[in-house]
Amino acid sequence: MIGMSTRHILLGLLATGPSHGYDLKRRHDERFPQARPLAYGQVYTTLQRLVRDGLAEVDGTDSDGGPERTTYRSTKDGARELAEWAGQIAPPAPFVTNEIFAKVVVSILSGGDAEAYLRAQRAAHTARMRELTAVKTARGTDLATVLSADYALNHLDADLRWMTTTAARLTTLTAEVDAG
To answer: What is the model's pTM?
Structure first.
């Protein structure tokens, strides 16, 4: 199973035509505005691996009056791998690893205040939701940013609902953890 990776994102960006690393980094950061920006080193390392693996090739070099830049393009094998990756269903996680839940249990085990922790975590989630809503509703916001913010907001909302339910069940959870 091939997972989400910089490799596939760069292949997707190269699918629109030859490009050099600087442009690929800029376009990544524009297309995926809520994602962590790519580091130039990561872009060039990934491009080198794509070339090594036969998924991209050097298209040429140009300088445009500045430093020399290598242009890359996708190969047939690159297009095939990209299509395969893009068509794969992302499997729902078989096991949910939830850092918040782990901290609640550890707090109970160590005599901490799980209820106070959940309150503080809910406040942090709520603040982040306000930030994302402001980004999403700002004048001139592009659709990619709105969709990314919607995705994050839905996940944060699910976390909030879970935290509310867990807070209501803390007495029972504490008894189970203490007995365990």
So the answer is: 0.68
Spatial distance between the Cα atoms of 16 and 7, rounded to a whole number of angstroms? 15
At 95 the pLDDT is: 66
Note the pLDDT tens digit of each residue in 22-43: 999 999 988 887 778 889 999 9
**What residue spans of the chain are helical by DSSP H?**
6-14, 21-31, 40-52, 76-87, 99-109, 114-137, 143-168, 170-179
Residue that is written with structure tokens 């997972």 in the block: 3
**Beta bridge partners of residue 71, listed in sequence order:** 20, 60
| Cα distance between the two ends of the chain | 37
- Please name every residue paired with 20 in a beta bridge, in sequence order, or none if there are none: 71
Which pair of structure tokens corresponds to residue 3?
Answer: 């997972």
Burial track 127-136 (b if 16+ CB lie within 10 A, e otherwise):
eebeebeebb
Range with the poorest average pLDDT among 79-83, 128-132, 141-145:
141-145
